[in-house]
């Protein structure tokens, strides 16, 4: 009997791409991951996820399923489920109901990550720094609520959707210097996402960093990226073009200087949100050198042009081997693990252990 792996993703054509669907994986990312997984001694069953019924029917038709590799954020038939957190939770709850091990975060962790106000509340109960913030369940703010935001957060203020990732709804208009800016941005978010919750936080103008934590028994911090400070807002459009500017990134060792401080924060966040397999978080540094966590992503992009791909490339780890490492982390002690996957895991683990020797401080 073959060992079957579900590969669950969201993909739409460029012609059908809208703002709310921008987190969907590209056809290149989908094919790259599918091909890599097929090399791990699994029969890969791909599913471009439309709805819950499709997922259940696929599982029942192909049962038994050994494990699932999940990068889908929700259901394409319900676009809001891709960014409001409901889809990510439902996918994992369905897999758990069939006792299928899966990659990436648990339902609880995804609830934390897909609701930025909840992320801040969880982290705010620790010593981890977060921006001053206030959230509202709707962008229809009254005069009283605007005043409340101005008093509790103050200007300059940064406005973004409370749900979603990949910088959805974030652009230069997100930085608000006054009431007029605030009203304009709120109107834009309402037009893009309807009655979705919004988050208002203090704007931090310093350097921005992104860092990933991988693994379970012994979580490891990957090389940390410091982005050039030539743009104020890393919008979706800016991120799409960053691949061409990688030479301007600064890599920090997670064992030295500011990188060590960031790594310590990242591991505390990983523990605080009960992370599994991998998370990526973004931080900004203020004028005094204080580091603030501004976002946590439970299913970081595995695009070849994304930050995680660049981090593992600097360690001479291929995306294929990295996916094998993740699959082993999920399946060991639970399901079938081929000798090949175990060997890949050992090889990647050695490179992760020597991460400090592979980057430029």
UniProtKB/TrEMBL annotation:
UniProt entry keywords in alphabetical sequence: ATP-binding, Ligase, Nucleotide-binding
Pfam families the record matches: Dala_Dala_lig_C
Entry-linked PROSITE patterns: ATP_GRASP
Record-annotated membrane-spanning stretches: none
Superkingdom assignment: Bacteria
InterPro entries in alphabetical order: ATP-grasp (IPR011761), Dala_Dala_lig_C (IPR011095)
Residue ranges occupied by any ATP-grasp domain in the UniProt entry: 120-328
PANTHER family cross-referenced by the UniProt entry: D-ALANINE--D-ALANINE LIGASE, D-ALANINE--D-ALANINE LIGASE B
Family of this protein: Belongs to the D-alanine--D-alanine ligase family.
Protein name, as recorded: ATP-grasp domain-containing protein
Organism: Evansella tamaricis
């Amino acid at each position: 009997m073959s060992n079957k792996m579900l590969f669950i993703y969201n993909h739409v054509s460029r012609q059908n791409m809208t703002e709310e669907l921008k987190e969907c994986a590209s056809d290149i990312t989908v094919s790259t991951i599918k091909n890599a997984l097929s090399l791990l001694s699994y029969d890969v069953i791909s599913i471009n996820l439309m709805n819950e019924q499709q997922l259940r029917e696929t599982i029942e038709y192909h049962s038994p399923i050994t494990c699932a590799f999940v990068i889908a954020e929700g259901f394409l038939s319900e676009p809001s489920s891709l960014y409001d957190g409901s889809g990510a939770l439902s996918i994992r709850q369905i897999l758990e109901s069939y006792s299928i091990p899966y990659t990436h975060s648990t339902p609880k962790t995804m609830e934390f990550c897909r609701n930025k106000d909840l992320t801040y509340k969880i982290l705010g109960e620790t010593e981890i720094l977060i921006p001053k913030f206030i959230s509202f369940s709707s962008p229809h703010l009254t005069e009283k609520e605007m005043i409340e935001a101005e008093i509790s957060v103050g200007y300059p203020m940064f406005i973004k959707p409370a749900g979603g990732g990949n910088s959805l709804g974030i652009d230069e208009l997100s930085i608000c210097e006054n009431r007029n800016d605030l009203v304009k941005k709120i109107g834009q978010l309402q037009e893009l996402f309807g009655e979705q919750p919004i988050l208002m936080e203090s704007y931090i103008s310093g350097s921005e960093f992104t860092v990933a934590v991988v693994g379970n028994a012994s979580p490891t911090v990957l090389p940390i990226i410091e982005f050039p400070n030539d743009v104020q807002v890393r919008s979706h459009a800016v991120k799409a073009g960053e691949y061409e500017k990688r030479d301007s990134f600064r890599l920090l060792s997670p064992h030295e200087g500011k990188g060590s401080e960031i790594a310590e924060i990242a591991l505390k966040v990983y523990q605080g949100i009960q992370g599994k397999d991998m998370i990526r978080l973004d931080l900004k540094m203020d004028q005094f050198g204080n580091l603030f966590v501004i976002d946590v992503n439970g299913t970081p992009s595995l695009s070849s042009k994304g930050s995680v791909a660049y981090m593992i490339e600097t360690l001479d780890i291929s995306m294929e081997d990295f996916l094998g490492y993740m699959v082993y982390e999920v399946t060991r002690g639970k399901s079938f693990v081929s000798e090949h996957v175990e060997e890949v895991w050992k090889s990647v683990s050695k490179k992760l252990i020597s991460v400090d020797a592979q980057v430029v401080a």
